[in-house]
């Protein structure tokens, strides 16, 4: 399936900004199931410096700096990607989760070594006994890993309330766990803490979700905004993307933009500016199907 | 007296005989058999010859030098704050040349090894994929900065500047106990220790054939020049400091000065066009390399710590684009991971094909299961170093814990084994240290320094040794604490005298090259000028007022002779702006009994506008531009601060003792003025200092004249006031010579208002102010006079054109000089406007950078 994404971010400042440096992770990366056909990031006003590099995780990062005085900033990312639907095996035949933990710890395979990073606590996903006990019912001894991960996702979906008013990007994980509410970022972080607490490799995924409700069905949440979910590594199978906000494994309508240890690694746009006093942010995202469909 | 100490007072022979090394510990001076090692013999002889009193005298000399040079170090949690003087032991650590050569080889190998590891970790990470380094060892360490991955290092040399902490095991073998790689401090203190010691013990130093240090600092300059991003001269290199409140700020300023680099803070720098620039007055200067003293994480709020105000947004990008060289490269703190030591022998074989020459203390990383089991088994005998978040450098000693604490530690290790490292508990070797009047063995750690030159690493022939205060110290921390010690590597041949100056080194630009003045520096210099002058003016006014008040004693309070006092007191309030004082609410009461208010102005540190606050502000501004003030100037600043301390610690209760403090203070302030005038190059920076001084003096004079001459008093009173004003403005002698017939207001104004040759007159201040402002940098578009110059010229023209006789005409009531008062008021306003204009044009620092709002990804709306 082909999807076209348009993501417009606009900052309006109360005072003029004299200088601004920004990093954007808005161009979708390639994955095993995703090919990026076109991608561009336009910045208005015109940046004096614009450069792209690939970060540690393989994400595409656009750095730009605006050196003329400006009172608004608009960043428009447009891309077209082709995504293949995943084919997951029957969860029952995936290996017991403890076996995966052992493989991650002792395996000599490069992929496993590379994945070890994702078994570690990170700034926004610290080790959490609260997350560990939340995970416990899903991780009965010997349970196949995919079954356990799907179960965890389902419980997250059921037990946590979606509440954009409750959290900000700096709300600590334990607070999310204590109140059982948050947004997609928070749910992904909780899942990461739960999986990493077991010694499993799990990574944060930022991206988009196409919203095109099939007739008669409810509109999927996650529409018209950037979205986030998590992926767990199953040796031999690869990274399996799971979306606890909508309680489903990622299908064709999930566009992956960037991956990292947590939100901090993949924030779509971060920046530092001089002047400006206060500012307001508006975001508009459109995900459209291209061609048939 | 404890038997193991050698008493200086016990006669020459006992000096050494009473010195008993601790059993089972290597001692630098004596062998286990009690023999004095040969290379210590000469030092011992010299000490014997000096005798206890001689030694103490030298020690006092050293203390004085340290104080005069303002050498400070502020260890965290130190209650004395920033001004705790650096402690220096009189006895250097002495090391034989041949032994040093062996150590040197090991250090160079280690630096090369660490440099290769660093390059790999921020590049291909082959060491991890090949299984030579566990991924979790590195990736779980907060010092490994993933955003810095892929930033290329100039010449593959991310580790430019490197320090190692060393001690000896009982068999005398050197062991590394710590690596300092992100911004290693201590090289400045090492130099300062050397300067002090070689001055206090010149002949001992000369005859001991000590290896000189200057060559090492030349290497540092060469290395940075070579690595500077743009090779076409002139390359610009700066030293970046977190600022005056940093514990080692003294060293930053000292080293920057010695190396001839501009000392800058993050706010002085800016990233534009993908490169790094220094904001100087009215323009930007491209920077090619940064010797940084700001820790990795704080260097760039765009990619590293968002809340850092010490760094420069975009710095990582500038380095990524190859437009600036950072020494060391961002992220080099990963090498400080204590667990890395466990892997070095293997890595050395792999990367260099050699055995590790200089072994570490046996180290285990708990992330390896077998190692953890062993660590937990032998926990009591080990030192535990957490390598977690935040990167802690604190060591834990399980052997000293109670069982509950130990159990808690075991649980923590088991929960996060990746974050714990264990090391064998080694007792550092001891060296003789002067403790009181005795020489005693004290645990000693040597920090030495390396720098990357084209042909390889160069080691400083010496270093900074530190001894613990107490004999029973488990381990000297890697922080700079304890007592400093110079380190002498003894050459067999005497060495040529050298210094950084005049080496004729082609690679290095002349040290005397003037570094640009940043806006921040100009701002501080301007205020140094203002505060110094303000303090001097205040003290002068206070003194004269006290004299006049003292004359009153014995006369009736209403006596004509003393009626100038209220005017002086009111001038005091206006000048210090310490309202209400003798002007506002309740002034009558204070005029009747002025002493408490005056003493408060003199000694109350809480009093806004009072003398202590003015002096404190002067000290702070001076400290912020430490590197731009000469040693002599700094000594005067120290004197001034000592007077300040004396005033505030023992506030005078009467005028007599107050005068005793004020008199030397005036002398010190005058000395400060003279030094800044005579000993500073009259360059861009000096122009600002001078502008501040002239502006303040002009304001003071205008305020003084306005306060004293606006009201027309009786003849006696006028006479006394004129005399007082002449005293305050130091113009009495000229006045007497010029106007022999009596005292007149007109003559006074002629001299202290309109005379452009009198350095105390208002007109003189304006002339000087105009002159220095004309030399300040201006925008490219500017033609003719700048707005600042026009402001000054308006004042100056007014002063030149006015007819004194008309100016002092009484008003209709015959009690006031309205025209004079108005004009002085206008002049004060105009001078204040000049100050504002200077601030707006030159000192306006760019606003604080902010982070953009986050949460762009927020899920459904």
TrEMBL record, chain A:
**Regions crossing the membrane:** none
Under the heading Pfam families, the entry gives: Bact_transglu_N, Transglut_core
* Residue ranges annotated for the Transglutaminase-like domain, each copy included: 176-246
Entries under InterPro entries matching the protein: Bac_transglu_N, Papain-like_cys_pep_sf, Transglutaminase-like
Instruction: Give the source's domain of life in one word.
Output: Bacteria
Which named protein is this?
Answer: Transglutaminase family protein
For this protein's source organism, the top of the classification is: Bacteria, Pseudomonadati, Pseudomonadota, Gammaproteobacteria, Chromatiales
From TrEMBL, chain B:
Name listed for the protein in its UniProt record:
Circularly permuted type 2 ATP-grasp protein
Limits of the DUF403 domain: 518-843
Q: Tell me the InterPro entries matching this sequence.
A: ATP-dep_Glu-Cys_Ligase-2 (IPR051680), CP_ATPgrasp_2 (IPR025841), DUF403 (IPR007296)
Q: Which residues form the Circularly permuted ATP-grasp type domain?
A: 92-468
Q: From which lineage does this chain's organism come? A: Bacteria, Pseudomonadati, Pseudomonadota, Gammaproteobacteria, Chromatiales
Q: Name one Pfam family in it.
A: CP_ATPgrasp_2
């Amino acid at each position: 399936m082909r999807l076209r994404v348009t993501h417009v971010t606009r900052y309006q400042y109360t005072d003029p900004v004299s200088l601004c440096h920004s990093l954007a992770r808005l161009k979708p990366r390639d994955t095993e199931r995703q090919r990026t056909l076109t991608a561009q990031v336009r910045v208005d006003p015109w940046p004096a410096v614009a450069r792209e590099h690939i970060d540690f995780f393989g994400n595409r990062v656009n750095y730009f700096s605006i050196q003329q005085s400006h009172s608004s900033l608009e960043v428009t990312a447009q891309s077209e990607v082709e995504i293949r639907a995943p084919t997951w095996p029957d969860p029952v035949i995936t290996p017991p989760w403890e076996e995966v933990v052992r493989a991650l710890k002792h395996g000599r395979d490069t992929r496993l070594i590379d994945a070890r990073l994702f078994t570690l606590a990170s700034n926004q996903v610290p080790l959490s006994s609260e997350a560990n006990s939340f995970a416990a019912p899903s991780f009965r001894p010997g349970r196949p890993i995919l079954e356990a991960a799907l179960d965890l996702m389902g419980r997250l979906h059921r037990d946590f309330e979606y509440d954009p008013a409750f959290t900000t990007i700096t709300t600590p994980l334990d607070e999310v766990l204590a109140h059982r509410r948050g947004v997609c970022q928070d749910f992904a972080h909780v899942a990461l803490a739960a999986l990493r607490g077991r010694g499993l490799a799990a990574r944060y995924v930022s991206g988009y979700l196409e919203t095109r409700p099939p007739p008669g069905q409810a509109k999927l949440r996650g529409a018209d905004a950037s979205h986030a979910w998590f992926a767990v590594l199953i040796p031999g199978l690869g990274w399996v993307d799971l979306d606890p906000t909508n309680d489903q494994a990622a299908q064709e309508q999930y566009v992956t933009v960037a991956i990292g240890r947590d939100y901090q690694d993949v924030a779509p746009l971060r920046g530092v500016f001089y002047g400006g006093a206060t500012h307001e942010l508006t975001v508009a995202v459109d995900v459209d199907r291209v061609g048939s469909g | 007296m404890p038997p193991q100490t050698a008493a200086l007072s016990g006669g020459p022979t006992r000096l050494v005989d009473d010195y008993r090394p601790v059993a089972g510990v290597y001692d630098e001076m004596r062998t286990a058999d009690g023999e004095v090692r040969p290379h210590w013999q000469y030092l011992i002889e010299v000490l014997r010859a000096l005798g206890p009193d001689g030694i103490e005298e030298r020690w006092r000399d050293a203390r004085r030098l340290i104080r005069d040079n303002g050498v400070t170090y502020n260890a965290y949690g130190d209650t004395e704050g920033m001004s705790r003087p650096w402690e220096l032991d009189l006895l250097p650590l002495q090391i034989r040349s041949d032994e040093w050569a062996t150590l040197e080889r090991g250090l160079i190998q280690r630096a090369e090894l660490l440099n290769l590891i660093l390059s790999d970790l921020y590049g291909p990470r082959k060491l991890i994929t090949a299984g030579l380094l566990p991924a979790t060892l590195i990736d779980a360490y907060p010092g490994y900065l993933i955003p810095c991955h892929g930033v290329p290092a100039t010449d593959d040399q991310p580790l430019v500047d490197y320090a190692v902490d060393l001690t000896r095991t009982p068999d005398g073998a050197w062991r590394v106990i710590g690596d300092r790689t992100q911004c290693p401090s201590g090289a400045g203190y090492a130099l300062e220790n050397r300067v002090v010691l070689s001055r206090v013990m010149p002949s001992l130093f000369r005859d001991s054939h000590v290896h000189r240090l200057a060559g090492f600092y030349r290497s540092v300059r060469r290395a940075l020049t070579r690595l500077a991003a743009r090779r076409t001269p002139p390359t610009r290199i700066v030293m970046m400091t977190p600022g005056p409140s940093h514990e080692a700020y003294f060293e930053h300023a000292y080293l920057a000065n010695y190396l001839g680099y501009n000392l800058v803070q993050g706010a002085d720098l800016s990233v534009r066009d993908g490169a790094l620039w220094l904001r100087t007055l009215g323009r930007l200067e491209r920077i090619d390399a940064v010797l940084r003293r700001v820790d990795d994480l704080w260097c760039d709020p765009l990619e590293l710590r968002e809340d850092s105000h010490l760094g420069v947004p975009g710095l990582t990008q500038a380095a990524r684009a190859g437009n600036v060289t950072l020494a060391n490269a961002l992220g080099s703190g990963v090498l400080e991971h204590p667990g890395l030591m466990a892997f070095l022998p293997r890595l050395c074989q792999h990367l260099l094909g050699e055995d590790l020459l200089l072994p570490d203390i046996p180290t285990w990383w708990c992330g390896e299961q077998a190692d953890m089991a062993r660590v937990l088994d032998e926990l009591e005998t080990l030192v535990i170093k957490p390598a977690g978040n935040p990167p802690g450098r604190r060591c834990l000693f399980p052997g000293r814990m109670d069982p509950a604490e130990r159990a808690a530690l075991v649980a923590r290790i088991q929960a996060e084994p990746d974050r714990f490292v264990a090391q064998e508990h080694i007792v550092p070797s001891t060296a003789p240290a002067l403790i009181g009047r005795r020489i005693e063995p004290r645990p000693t750690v040597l920090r030495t320094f390396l720098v990357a030159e084209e042909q390889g690493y160069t080691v400083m022939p010496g270093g900074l040794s530190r001894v613990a205060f107490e004999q029973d110290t488990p381990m000297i921390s890697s922080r700079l604490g304890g007592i400093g010690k110079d380190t002498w590597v003894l050459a067999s041949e005497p060495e040529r005298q050298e210094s950084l100056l005049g080496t004729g080194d082609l690679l290095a630009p002349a040290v005397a090259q003037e570094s640009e003045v940043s806006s921040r520096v100009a701002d501080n210099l301007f205020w140094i000028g203002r505060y110094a002058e303000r303090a001097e003016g205040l003290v002068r006014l206070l003194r004269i007022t006290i004299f006049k008040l003292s004359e009153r004693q014995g006369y009736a309070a209403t006596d004509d002779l003393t009626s100038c006092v209220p005017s002086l007191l009111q001038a005091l309030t206006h000048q210090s702006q310490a309202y209400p004082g003798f002007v506002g609410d309740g002034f009558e009461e204070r005029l009747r009994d002025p002493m408490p208010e005056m003493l408060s102005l003199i000694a109350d540190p809480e009093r806004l506008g009072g003398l202590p606050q003015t002096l404190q502000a002067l000290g702070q501004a001076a400290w912020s531009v430490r590197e731009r003030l000469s040693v002599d100037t700094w000594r005067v600043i120290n004197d001034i601060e000592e007077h300040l301390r004396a005033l505030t610690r023992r506030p005078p209760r009467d005028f007599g003792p107050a005068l005793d403090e004020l008199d030397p203070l005036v002398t010190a302030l005058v000395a400060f003025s003279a030094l800044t005038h005579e000993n500073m190059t009259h360059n861009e920076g000096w122009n600002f200092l001078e502008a501040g001084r002239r502006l303040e003096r002009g304001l003071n004079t205008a305020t003084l004249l306005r306060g004293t001459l606006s009201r027309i008093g009786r003849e006696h009173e006028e006479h006394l006031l004129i005399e007082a004003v002449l005293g305050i403005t130091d113009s009495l002698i000229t006045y007497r010579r010029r106007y022999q017939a009596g005292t007149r207001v007109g003559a006074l104004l002629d001299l202290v208002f309109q005379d452009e040759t009198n350095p105390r007159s208002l007109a003189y201040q304006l002339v000087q102010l105009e002159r220095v402002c004309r030399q300040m940098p201006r925008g490219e578009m500017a033609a003719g006079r700048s707005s600042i110059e026009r402001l000054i010229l308006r004042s100056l023209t007014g002063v030149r054109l006015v007819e004194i006789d008309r100016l002092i005409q009484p008003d209709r009531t015959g009690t006031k000089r309205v025209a004079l008062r108005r004009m002085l008021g206008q002049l004060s306003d105009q001078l204040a406007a000049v100050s504002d204009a200077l601030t707006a044009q030159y000192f306006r620092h760019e606003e604080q950078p902010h982070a953009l709002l986050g949460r762009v990804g927020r899920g459904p709306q």
